[in-house]
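no rush on this but wanted to send it before i forget. theres a chain ive been looking at and ive put its sequence and its fold in token form underneath. please have a look and point out which stretches look like helix strand or loop to you. thanks a lot i owe you, the record is right below:
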Amino acid sequence: MFKPMSKPFGKLDRKKVKRDPLKKKKVFKKRPCRFCNDKVENLDFIEYLRFQKFLTERGKIVPSRISGNCAKHQRQLSKAIHKARIMALLPFVSE
């Protein structure tokens, strides 16, 4: 006879894993966003000297988990850095 399935295909049985309380993951405190603390609403590419803290020595943009920026300001920061690079205020690559 046909027996209906209790669970649809594709879903896996996931057992609840109990973790040892002595082996906890390290929890890091998130840094406060510098732009939120300064109450900056819009980032402009003309203020390129402010962005040099958020670039590595190779010219890459530092991720938000390291810099501590919130998502809103990290997006504005990346757009401003890209515009500053196009306007030749910041280098694309540092040699």
In short: The domain at 34-86 is CATH 4.10.640.10 (30s Ribosomal Protein S18). The mean pLDDT is 80.
